[in-house]
Amino acid sequence: MWCLPTPGHLAVSLLAARSPGWAWGPSRCRPPREAVCNFVCDCRGCPDEAQCGYHGASPTLGAPFACDFEQDSCGWRDISTSGYSWLRDRAGATPEGPGPRSDHTLGTDLGWYAAAGTHRGREVATAALRSPTLREAAPSCELSLWYHVASGGVAELRLELTHGVETLTLWRSSGPWVPGWQELVVPTGRIQGDFRVTFSATRNATRRGAVALDDVAFWSCGLPTPQAHCPLGHHHCQNKACVEPHQLCDGEDNCGDGSDEDTPTCNHHTATDFERGLGLWNRSEGWARNHSAGGPQHPAWPHRDHSRNSAQGSFLVAVAEPSAPAILSSPEFQASAPEKCSLTFYHYLHGSQAGCLQVFLQTRSAGAPHAAVLLRRRHRELGAAWVRDRVDIQSKHPFRILLAGQTGPGGVVGLDDLILSDHCKPVPEVAGPPPGLWAPGPRSQLSSLQPWNFCEPGHLLCGELCVPPEQLCDFQQQCPGGEDEQECGTTDFESPSAGGWEDASVGRLQWVRLPAQDSGSPGMDASGAAGHFLSVQRAWGQLAEQARVLTPTLGPSGPRCELHMAYYFQSHPQEISCNFERDTCGWHTGHLTDAHWHRVESRGPGYDHTTGQGHFMLLDPTEPPAQGPGAHLLTWPQSPAAAQECLSFWYHLYGPQIGETPCWAGPRWRPTGGSSSVSGPVGALGGVRGRSRGLVPSKPCLPLGTLRLAMRREGERERHLWSRSGTHGNRWHEAWATLHHPQDSSAKYQLLFEGLRDGYHGTMALDDMTVRPGPCWAPKRCSFEDSACGFSTGGRGLWTRQTNATGQAARGPPADHTTETAQGHYMVVDMSPQALPRGHVASLISEEHRPLAQAACLTFWYHLSLRNPGTLRVHVEEAERRQVLSIGTDGGFAWRLGSVDLQAERAWRVVFEAVAAGVERSYIALDDLLLQDGPCPRPASCDFEAGLCGWNHLPWPGLGGYSWDWSSGAAPSRYPQPPVDHTLGTEAGHFALFETGVLGPGGRAAWLRSQPLPATEASCLRFWYHMGFPEHFYKGELRVLLSSARGQLAVWGAGGRLRHQWLEGQVEVASAEEFQIVFEATLGGQPALGPIALDDVEYLAGQRCQLPTPSQGDTAVATSVPAVVGGTLLLLMLLVLLGLAGRRWLQNRGGCPFWGETDTVAPSFDNILFNAVGALGGVAGRSP
Asked: Which residue, 520, 548, 788, 917, has fewest beta-carbon neighbours within 10 Å?
């Protein structure tokens, strides 16, 4: 069990079980047990990967599943059996203790980590920290962590992996310990089924043994998921996963079901795993079969083989003397040309900087062997891992492959899984070697490669002097000719030895010495001549992606030691594709406005999309305060790469007043006459400076609080491609737009992001832009503000995209749904008989949507004319067309919400069909299509996990232009918010939120409005709300209003000064006509930072509320509107009776007279408010 903190020591014990907040999301996603904690997000929001030794989903592709211990233990448990145990701790709690002075994540004394407590016992003890049960690690899986050993009392650190009945030692160290945080990266290899990881520290007797652990991360551990189609050239596994071509027949289960190693091609390969002998490789000198279990107690000895990833598996190790190589020879192979004989092999070099493995090719012609040719050389330390490599041989003569391993002091060189392709065909054996062939013993073939040396291993021979290793490359010449300082990193790479630089890569990239004339670019070396240099090239390794090149061990050095080097990036500085980690690539900020986009680093509430800790582009209106309405982010002029290109990007629009208020009224201009030009960094509008003739007002302005994308092309008008307005919640969203280029046109183009603002409470951000050839998929969201989103009309052109800005539209609603203004756009079809005869159909067909990985919900807003226009039918077209919805009711004055549940395993389209009823002056309109994961919610109900579920947060005129927002406790925010939601009870859950601190005195408010709901005699509205304000004289208010054509009626309210927790509210509503539910957030006192949040809103149509029991202390009292009105009328009657009695008494006493000649007006109670904190409200405002 967990160790209790000592007196005066602030610490938080790690949980021995999963957090009580663990719960499946409201989407009811319940994956099978084997899909939980398998490094793959199977549910929206990734709750199936929470508390798995890491937290939630990886922020982006390629990022790890990680735990930084800042919030909790991520499911890690202490399993120690003594007082020496693990707990969650931070440096600020023990300023005088032997532990670290800061954590690794934040680098401050406020950060958290896991720590083995400073036990004062007098016995040897082990503290063990174990992960939850994990499942199915991919062959590429790596576990990284940072550890800190603060005292000499630690005898050993150990990292183990247990699966089945076997426990593998991934890493073990007995020191010496280096001060500060140290990184450990260990590959796990392919693990089938369940496994657990244990990190343990063993302390010496009578010593404290202070150890800390932080930033545990699992990299590339998830197996590929099933796909309907694989990219070109990829292999489609039996389980429908996709793997790259180089992963076939490589001795690793990359598919997850082994089918990539069981293809017809693999059946012709010859694999030797050394489990039962040497196979074809039976000519061996200095190599021995061995295994880890029961092997020598060598600190660098492999803990497992590669074939089985087990300590019981066999492999080869070099057992020759360090001064002589161990030689492994293949049989003689037939000439392979013009085909290639490929050898894939796994090697192990660990424990010594002098270890070396070389691959030679030896051919034979005219009966005599040729000298061995070096094909590959790996030297020095590669870590305790089996590293994949491959050589391709194309020979016109018979040949052998020789593998020579040479160990250094304390090192181990190993081999496993030698795989020969089908074009490696052995020469048929004959009895005895024919005359003229090479001798059976391969060692003599390589003896000439080893210079005679009487010095000890690791020493350098120069003349008659043996220089020890510690005097090599120490910047002091020992040899008369300086040989001891010649291969120490100083080089121009003209020598084949490369100045001692050695590639130490173990992944898909490596450093290679190349001649400039053969490398394509830069075409010359740093001196300007056609020399040599090091270049990053593709490699065959399967582990860490980065390429590493190392010098020999140097030093010690003096304090003024400097490194000088020339480097070259073969990149395109004007590329559109950019993650902004290094720079802004081909993007630059415009200079015609005083507001600017800035490349910023993740810090505090601002976080990027790529890694959550990197860089992104930010438009913040408060730094510095800008006078103009917007800012421009432009590309350099680009040449089209294809007739159609797809631009994808991630955007972030967040804040209570980033708003969608009416258009900025200032003038916006466009040039007239001539052709516009594509501008460079000097300006965004064709080099226009100051005043200019020939300028006229441009088309109607966009609403402020808008991020839009446009394309400019020489000689053409600016074309709008995409836009979003208002806040979209505290999260990153993906979007894309297709770039259409004229055929056979070389005209360059520019892309422009423009941010338009109307307030100073909100930010806009962009990240991870990518351009690829070909069109995009259909967008998930379409407001028709910038285009028809790729919708086609089947060639008849009956559906049209229109706006009613002039007030002269022949057919259609007066305002759109997106902006609720006449300037907004929507799609409409004229259903009059002369346009569409009775029974005829007008189709609106989307572009192809990408296949759905899970169930999804398509929502749209429709508007039917008052006169019956006919029927709106919705079809989904996958392999065939099927109808999923039909709407045939009469219209009205309001936009209404439609929703369809979808499942599609292949590409699909949505088709809207308008079937005419033959009625004059009728129409059907569409707006605001949205595709979201998960099933469709019931009307006016929402758990806010996927979004706002049709609740409208558009600022209402006259209320100040403020919006409700959408966030989660886990998302960094500059505004206060609840730490957890109500649905999941965790920081990963989402809620609707409004920050009242942006409001000023006077009670301006923000509204969250439901879709129009039908009349009801009695229905129940249930919801959970959260309010928190720092001082007692601040008072935030949350009210529930019913809004209809007659006005607004307040039916429920709650004030501030409540506990900082989720409280339940419910109210029974009734309306004789169509209505909307409105949640109004406002401030009743002075401005203060304080959130009002909503979650789990449930509207039960036709059901009365169940009154809560008096013991429910966390439930706001519910009541029905008639009960409130009845109680109020009773109170009024009592007041009238008391008034009459008082008048009679005053008249009898001769008091002040009432002015009987004045008509009195009884008060009107149009708006009755019940306040949940105990006050009975009076008039809250009259209906308009």
From this structure: 520
**948-951 contacts at long range (C-beta below 8 A, 24 or more positions apart):** 948/992, 948/1008, 950/859, 950/897, 950/899, 950/1010, 950/1011, 951/992, 951/1008, 951/1009, 951/1010, 951/1011, 951/1097
Instruction: Determine contact, residues 203/124, Cβ cutoff 8 Å.
Output: yes
Report how far residue 1089's alpha carbon sits from residue 650's, in angstroms, rounded to the nearest whole number: 29
Distance (Å) of CA 280 to CA 316, 365, 617, 898: 14, 22, 58, 69
- Are the CB atoms for 1079 and 1008 separated by under 8 Å? yes
Q: What are the pLDDT digits (tens) for 243-268? A: 999 899 999 999 999 999 988 889 88
Residue 667 to residue 1167: CA distance in whole angstroms: 42
Return d(Cα 814, Cα 923) in angstroms, integer: 12
647: enclosing H helix or E strand: strand 644-657
Helix (H, G, I), strand (E, B) or coil at 124: coil
Nearest to 166 by CA among 208, 126, 194: 194
Weakest mean pLDDT among 113-127, 164-178, 895-909: 113-127
For the chain, the C-alpha Rg in angstroms (whole number) is 37
Tell me, letter by letter, the H, E, C secondary structure of 1095-1153: EEEEEECCCCCCCCCCCCCCECCCCEHHHHHHHHHHHHHHHHHHHHHHHHHHHHHCCCC
Mean pLDDT of the chain: 78
Q: What's the CA gap between 148 and 719, in Å, rounded?
A: 57
User: What does the alpha-carbon distance between residue 601 and residue 1136 come to, in Å, rounded to a whole number?
Assistant: 68
Which pLDDT score, from 0 to 100, does residue 680 have? 33
Q: Which two tokens stand for residue 981?
A: 């939601």
Residue-wise burial string across 1051-1070, b where 16 or more C-beta atoms lie within 10 A, e elsewhere = bbbbbbbbeeebbbbbbbbb
DSSP string, 679-744: --TT-SSTT--S--SSEEE-SPPPBSSEEEEEEEETTS--EEEEEEES---SS-EEEEEEEE--TT
Decide: helix, strand or coil at residue 424.
coil
| Burial of 546 per CB tally in 10 Å (0-12, 13-18, 19+) | exposed
- Residue 402: C-alpha distances to residues 164, 373, 441, 444, 490 (Å): 38, 10, 11, 12, 32
Beta bridge partners of 792: 845
Q: pLDDT digits over 40-51, tens only? A: 888 876 788 888
pLDDT per residue as tens digits for the range 754-772:
887 655 467 789 999 999 8
* Residue of 1113, 1122, 1105, 1082 lying closest to 1023 (CA atoms): 1105
Report how far residue 950's alpha carbon sits from residue 939's, in angstroms, rounded to the nearest whole number.
8
Which one has a higher pLDDT value, 444 or 527? Answer: 527
What pLDDT, on the 0 to 100 scale, is given for residue 1117? 44
The three-class DSSP label of residue 197 is: strand
pLDDT at 1152 over 50: no
SS3 content of the chain, % helix, strand, coil (to 5): 5, 35, 60
Instruction: Read off the pLDDT of residues 622-668 as tens digits, 9 standing for 90 and up.
Output: 554 444 567 889 998 888 888 889 999 999 887 765 544 433 333 22
Burial class (CB in 10 A: 0-12, 13-18, 19+), 561: exposed
User: Residue 446: in which H helix or E strand, if any?
Assistant: helix 443-446
Contact 158, 211 (CB under 8 A): no
CA dihedral 1003, 1009, 1012, 1013 (to 10 degrees): -90
Is the pLDDT at 235 greater than 90, yes or no? yes
Comparing CA positions, the residue from 445, 435, 452 lying closest to residue 400 is: 445
The structure tokens listed for 355 are 């270890």
* Of 1072 and 1183, more confident: 1072
Q: In what order do the strands lie in the sheet with 587-589?
A: 587-589, 630-635, 749-756, 706-713, 719-725
Q: In Å, how far from its chain's centre is CA 807?
A: 45
